[in-house]
Task: structure prediction
Amino acid sequence: MGLFIAMALSACNRETVSFRNTDITGANFGHDFSLLDPDGATRSLADFRGKVVMMFFGFTQCPDICPTALSRAAQVRQLLGDDADRLQVIFVSVDPERDLPGVLKAYTAAFDPDFLGLYTSLEETRKVADEFRVFYRKVPTGGSYSMDHTATSYVFDPAGRLRLAVSYQSTAESVAADVQTLIQTASSRP
Result:
């Protein structure tokens, strides 16, 4: 009987969190990255400990998916109000040939001055994309090219753990609610 009561009390103390977007807590991918910011500094998840991180892979010449994802992220920050500074949005380029540092910086700043664009070499881009299970490929278009790529955003909690996959169709309201849950959960831990 004592064992049953101890198990029941243990279950009551467990953190129960439900999300509106896809919970991928414990995923065996997307553990970290080492990328350059537009100023040439190497950045990793450790740089953002204490913040929720929303990460999206794309390219600056994207006609619709990337601007939509980044516009939604800007709306999320607005919905967070006073907690907006507790969310770091990261845009990872899958087109480092054209997404030069100045282009990347101007592009992300057009959505929100606190958004951060990151990049690396072609070879390292492939490694990071593979680590996050992100698909991308060059698609010839006349005399130039476009990029096909995964349209999922990833969300990390303030401890740097991958927690959510956010689909392209998700609303800013649902993402903001999940980010707020991650902020509150982190704040309630001893």
